[in-house]
């Protein structure tokens, strides 16, 4: 339980706070969107989950949003 609290709660929160301090809240929040995208990719590649046109469209919208916010400066 202590290991779970450390690795799954404390460490990620600490890393997010460090990222906000270094790159700003906007970019840190958008970088957090990479997590669901990597989960999607691993689900398709490792587990053989289906990849539909709707999933591709949603993924594209997320990537465009990240790109727009990252290049807005």
Short key terms for the protein model shown above:
73 residues, mainly alpha, 4 helices
Overview of the molecule:
The chain has helices at residues 2-23, 25-31, 34-47, 53-71. With 73 residues, it is mostly helical. The radius of gyration is 15 Å and the shape is flat. Helix 1 packs across helix 2 and helix 2 packs antiparallel against helix 4. It has a domain at 24-73. The mean pLDDT is 88. The protein has four helices and no strands.
The total of beta strands comes to: 0
Average pLDDT over all residues: 88
Q: What class would the helix/strand composition place it in?
A: mainly alpha
Poorly predicted regions are: none
Total helix count?
4
Radius of gyration: 15 Å
- Please, what is the oligomeric state? single chain
Percent strand: under 5%
Shape assignment? flat
Q: Major β-sheet, in short?
A: none
The helix-strand sequence is: HHHH
Topology:
Elements lengths: L1 H22 L1 H7 L2 H14 L5 H19 L2
Helix pairs in contact: 1-2, 2-4
Concise account of the structure shown:
With 73 residues, this protein is an all-alpha fold. Helices cover 85% and strands 0% of the residues.
